[in-house]
Amino acid sequence: MHTHPLAEYMNCIYADSWAGVAELMLSSAEKLARIGADFLICPDNTIHQAFPMVVPRSPRPWLHIAEEVGNEAQRRGYKRLGVLGTRYLMEGPVYPEKLRAAGLEYRITGPDQRDEVNRIIFDELVNAQFTPRSLAYFVEVIRSLGDEGCDAVVLGCTEIPLLVTPESSPLPTLDSTRLLARAAVRRAAGVEQAAALRG
Questions:
Q1: How far, in Å, CA of 138 to CA of 105, rounded?
Q2: Which of 58, 72, 84, 98 could form a disulfide with 66 if both were Cys (CB 3.0 to 4.6 A apart)?
Q3: C-alpha to C-alpha distance for 85 and 82, rounded to whole angstroms
Q4: What does the pLDDT look like over 155-194, one tens digit per residue?
């Protein structure tokens, strides 16, 4: 496992420098490849926006978090997903591209709700503040996505599932970080099995 500080990533994101984000990701990829990683994952949804600049230069293949969410949504028979995360994620291309490729529809919240969800993430959740008021706000937002025909909601930020649980959500949840982790375990088990067969 390797990561640069969140502040370094955010400095690039605030400057709209996705090339800078890609360089940070590639720096980690090189370190992990040198110590023997067979493949790579990134549990941060937002910085997947830099993937098109990362994957062609990466020393190892990556699993894509939105692809894994789409795979699970298909498996469960969902058709239209609400997507929650940072403002950069909700307004960016990461989920639209992958969900459309999977034949899935999606919705995001209105601009005022996006701003407040983003504020809660950065002002509260990343600082381990989980308040009943913020949970109530997320529940209201998820309910509004249900009113738009969404049959599940993507918790597209590592910290959101620490606040919003399957029990508290008005819609079924797709915990992107957990789904990526499970996909990584399956991939790792397959890599080990293939190595054993070769040996």
A1: 21
A2: 98
A3: 10
A4: 999 999 999 999 999 999 999 999 999 999 999 998 555 5
